[in-house]
Amino acid sequence: MKNEKTLILGLGNVLLQDEGIGVHTLKELEKMQWPTGVDLLDGGTGGFVLLPLFQEYGRLIIIDATLSSEPQGTVKVIKPRYARDYPKSLSTHELGLKDMIESSILLGNSPEIFLVTVSINPQQQMSMELTEDIRAKIPEVIETVREQVYNRPAED
Fold first, then answer.
1. Most buried residue, 32, 36, 84, 90, by most Cβ within 10 Å?
2. H or E element, residue 97
3. Domain interval for residue 69
4. 8: nearest Cα among 131, 151, 103, 146
5. Residue range 105-134, pLDDT digits in tens
6. For residue 103, is it within any domain?
7. Is 154 exposed, middle or buried (0-12, 13-18, 19+ CB in 10 A)?
8. Which of 67, 63, 78 is nearest to 141 (CA)?
9. Which residues on adjacent β-strands are paired with residue 10?
10. For residues 70 and 7, what is the distance between their CA atoms, to the nearest angstrom?
11. Strand 112-119 and strand 75-78: pairing?
């Protein structure tokens, strides 16, 4: 039987301004009610320490910054199946996420993954505060996450 539990995972380095969008958004999501079977976790800069979550949950909704060619503040949902499906340049923990995906595939226990990305400027200041432009995107990111939880797409 497929695991129906969902994890909403906020990633990012909160010391590098907009790079922390995933964690900042997660703090807002924690103030909301979620259905049974939906958990939230601040994954920080993550890496392989998060790999066990790939076995514990049937779905992961990951919120993270990306250094894409999209305009700053662009919010997108990607459903990666392999590491190559990720944006060319994720934030400072790019290798950890890609390696986790590949490892979970090799272990034969890869959950359904939705990556909610926010494009940021590659030049980040040392600050625990988001820029105004990126902070203003938090409601859109929250709505995007809610859509993934409540309007679950049909199975492929």
1. 90
2. helix 94-106
3. 6-13+28-150
4. 146
5. 677 777 888 989 999 988 888 889 999 999
6. yes
7. exposed
8. 63
9. 42, 63
10. 27
11. antiparallel
